[in-house]
């Protein structure tokens, strides 16, 4: 009798490809360092200005350059040796972070420098992300791409859970300069992972970067119903079911506990991501990825709606503050958010695998660039939706309504696109 697949994380990609293993280790360590720098810059800006608006502008300032760099980086990845493109992007990130550390040690840092170097980091990371993701299918057989995406979920979970907390501790104990310097050291692991790769020229017809390349990618996307559908599903989930912008207010005026509650809610999402990857063995072997994406996003919508329901219950028990939090309701909210993080990660495993397996190699970088635009734009639209609706109704209303609408829209979309519903990872078609 054949042995039942383990529910635990599938580690076969590590045993199959040393190159993938080195790239994963390098990406994980460098990503952790990147999270250190992102959070440290925000703390640094607040120290220099005392303005929450100035802190929020760190993310806003990098959005457009990140999108442009993601699109252009995808074109570069489809035209040149991907190893060299990824190395160049890593070098820009390394130099900008080293400059940030040097200026801080010398006491010469200014708001302008912090913004400029943060934007440069965001742009370079977009190019590197699009290129590294396009590299993975050249290092592993198709049947292991889902397992590789699950391992990427481990990376994201570690980055989001450990990075912000570690940044706060390091800044408090050692200051900004040493925290930036630790990122510089961690970035060296990325070079080790990339340097050992063989040359990786795109396979197929190569189009030079520029308008013709962008148009070529757009035409391909128009013909690719499965890829378009997964983009649309992700936008629906991230626009209507993204409550992160509400977390600071929840800790202050509804659940109590202040900043500790805000941190716990944020960590709960990352914990769900990590645990879902840790026990992704059977999910990574599921072959009907279209249905898998839809079902995972429906679970995501249900979890966000449950989170909204918990907040509605909190309204019935007023009086919570920083000293007297609603511990039971905070725990319930964290469970709902952990489920949402896990469901989003399972959806991401199938979406990444579909992108890597169904898209031709010569087109993969450009489609990854478009994917970065979706991933970057969706949560920001979600922040606008949740923040605006909460300001004119109540804090519980955007997640409750949004979660329900996500379930309904995904159900309708799955019915309208039978090709997506029948997508088979054993015979991938874009």
From TrEMBL:
Record Gene3D superfamilies: MFS general substrate transporter like domains (1.20.1250.20)
Annotated GO MF terms: transmembrane transporter activity
Superkingdom of origin organism: Bacteria
Alphabetically ordered keywords of this record: Cell membrane, Membrane, Transmembrane, Transmembrane helix, Transport
Domain Major facilitator superfamily (MFS) profile, residue spans: 19-421
Keyword Transmembrane helix applies: yes
Keyword Ribosomal protein: no
Ranges in a coiled coil: none
Membrane topology, record value: Multi-pass membrane protein
InterPro entries named in the record: MFS_dom, MFS_trans_sf, TM_effector
UniProt-annotated location(s): Cell inner membrane
Any matching Pfam family: MFS_3
Transmembrane intervals: 21-46, 52-73, 85-106, 112-132, 144-172, 178-197, 256-279, 299-320, 326-346, 367-388, 394-414
Main location: membrane
GO cellular component annotations of the record: plasma membrane
PANTHER family according to UniProt: ENTEROBACTIN EXPORTER ENTS, INTEGRAL MEMBRANE EFFLUX PROTEIN-RELATED
Protein name as it appears in the record: MFS transporter
